[in-house]
Amino acid sequence: MNKYRTHNCNQLNKKNSGENIILSGWINKKRDHGNLLFIDLRDNYGLTQCIIDKSNPSFKELEKIQLESVIKVIGNVVVRDNETINNDLNTGEIEVNIISFEILGNCKELPMPVFSDQEYSEEIRLKYRFLDLRRKKIHENIILRSQVISFIRSEMLRLGFLEFQTPILTSSSPEGARDFLVPSRLNPGKFYALPQAPQQFKQLIMVSGFDKYFQIAPCFRDEDARADRSPGEFYQLDLEMSFVEQENIFEVVEKLMINIFEKFSSKNLLYKKFPRISYEDSMIKYGSDKPDLRNPLLIYDLTNIFTREDVSFDIFKKLVKSGSKVRCIVTKNTKDKPRSFFDNIDKWAKEQGASGLAYFTIEKDKKISAKGPVGKFFSEESLKEIMRITSADKGDSLFFACGKKNDVEKISSQAREKIANDLDLIDETKFAFCWIVDYPMFEIDEVTNQIKFSHNPFSMPQGNIKDIDFEKPLDIKAYQYDIVCNGVELSSGAIRNHVPELMYKLFSIAGYNKKQVNEKFSGMINALSYGAPPHGGIAPGIDRIVMLLANEKNIREVTMFPMNQNAEDLMMNAPSEVSDNQLKELSLMLKKKK
Predict the structure, then answer these.
(1) According to the model, what pLDDT value does residue 591 have?
(2) For a tag on the chain, would you pick the N or C end, based on fewer CB atoms within 10 A?
């Protein structure tokens, strides 16, 4: 018999009445009723209420003991009176009369309470993460994460995938985020890089003749933190398949996501067949390539309206002449909303750095007109055309944004979310998945004004290779795709370019010559020259999947030991300085700041 426990703290019920048992755990709460002391004992599995009478020699010692101390209890199970049963606990029908106890681990004064989910500063929570993880909500989040990963692993094996591990120490990549570099002791002056993703290795696995690969892969990127992105490291379900087209990838991933989200959440899936939305359409309709499809509001392009002679809104007309775009959001039946509703949205837009949102409401008496600050600038015919394009009707309101393409997409996307929240239009009981497809192969770098890859440089361009017009690179679409849920991008993926000569051609458009490609991607380009199958894959983020399932807004709530916004581990004091001897071994010298 285990000397520390005969049962876990969630197992006992009235069938155990009269039994002598042993429990071990943390003191979650104490309630002193004078002659009786109630102790809620907690372990990983649940809670059991224990009681001790003042006549017990251990009473005074237990009365003084600090919360979160670890104790072992020997006691007797008794059934509670009907009026004291706690239906919220698995053990709520019983309590344990303490015969004796033993302190297994004393607790110092707590820097934060464990028995409540009260919000505390990030600094305190991360410095004492081991205490934070004891708290009910986050403890359950981490258990959920473990269960989700185990389920994913079993599903992938059931679907015929094999699990392989790829190297952690690899070469630096010129694409994507900044690498974390690791100096080599045996090769002075040279560096490994921690993998941003197992991208090249998983393609090499396909070239090696394996058909379906997956792993729960750690990835390392020297990026700034966001609510949905941890600085430093994250985990993804990395998968790759040979002899597949885009739809084959979609079929596997849709089936997997449906099974995961139906098993681990009570929320409903809005679509069992995930919609396919082109990147171009997504940017126009939603202002983003990660749309929240629970939001019914759409964005419309009304740029051409402001080239009409019967529209006299000169501010927008001048901007449109200089190349600006106009986007519009329609809200249904908002004619009775107070003026403050519209003005607050306009004020909010200015706080985001935009010039504001113009607006009016459509009225229809004998003729169609527009009520609002800018309504007078539109003729009846122009309003009819706007109504035709946007499907707006009497009593609907329209919000307008004007600016450079990227700027107007950003503010209209934010406004779509803001207005939907203000009008309570988003159904929080749903998960809405979609695929964003047909990404451009290349884009213009806003800083350098040079052509660069828009997504993954190893992607296959769409269409017959012989017919691609490489003189118009911005027109080339790629077999690249993102999977999105509730406005959160879970992953990017692609059908890979497995043709070396085509890869050289595409890289040359992005400014890399053949020698540079051979140097940077030597393993990949060499392997593709020895007979590579058509292949493709994707890598959904584990952290983001669990974040959605746990209904959390911040990824740190589902990560066991996260860093803070400055990529610091406050608990382990990382990053830290190293000794001169360690630097000397690595042939490194620190440049002292003046």
Answers:
(1) 86
(2) C
Mind listing the pLDDT tens digit for each residue in 397-412?
999 999 999 999 999 9
Residue 594 CA: distances (Å) to CA of 129, 575, 589, 591: 36, 22, 15, 9
Could you tell me if 166 and 201 are in contact, meaning their C-beta atoms sit under 8 angstroms apart?
Answer: yes
Query: What CA–CA distance (Å, rounded) separates 566 from 447?
Result: 25
Q: How confident is the model at residue 284 (pLDDT cuts 50, 70, 90)?
A: very high
H helix intervals, 37-128: 59-64, 122-127
Tell me the two tokens of residue 86: 């706690």
- Tokens matching residue 181: 């570099």
Phi then psi for residue 233, to 5 deg, are -140, 155
d(CA 216, CA 153): 8
Rounded average pLDDT over 265-274: 96
Cα separations (Å) of 342 from 298, 398, 424?
A: 18, 10, 15
Q: Does position 177 have pLDDT exceeding 80, yes or no?
A: no
| 513, two tokens | 């010559």
Coil/strand/helix, residue 309:
coil
Strands 276-278, 433-437: parallel, antiparallel or unpaired by DSSP? parallel
Residue 534: predicted pLDDT: 97
Contact 122, 564 (CB under 8 A): yes
Q: Output the CA torsion sign for 201, 490, 158, 151.
A: positive
Alpha helices in 233-338 (DSSP H): 246-264, 279-285, 314-321
Nearest alpha carbon to residue 128 among 111, 142, 141, 106: 111
Distance CA 430, CA 160 (A): 30
Average pLDDT of the chain? 94
The confidence score (pLDDT) of residue 337 equals 94
> Residues with Cβ < 8 Å from 558, sequence gap 6 or more?
141, 142, 144, 145, 543, 546, 547, 550, 552
The one-letter amino acid at 330: V
pLDDT at 522 over 90: no
Beta-carbon contacts of residue 251 (< 8 Å; ≥ 6 apart): none
What's the pLDDT at 175? 58
- Please say whether the beta carbons of 544 and 486 come within 8 A: no
Closest C-alpha among 248, 289, 285, 254 to residue 269 = 254
DSSP codes joined into one string, 397-419 = EEEEEEESHHHHHHHHHHHHHHH
| Number of residues assigned to the chain | 594
- Helix crossing, 339-351 with 405-422: angle to 10°? 140
Dist. CA 264–CA 262, nearest whole Å = 6
Q: How far apart are the first and last CA of the chain?
A: 65
pLDDT in tens, 127-136: 999 999 999 9
How far apart CA 273 and CA 248 sit, in angstroms, is: 14
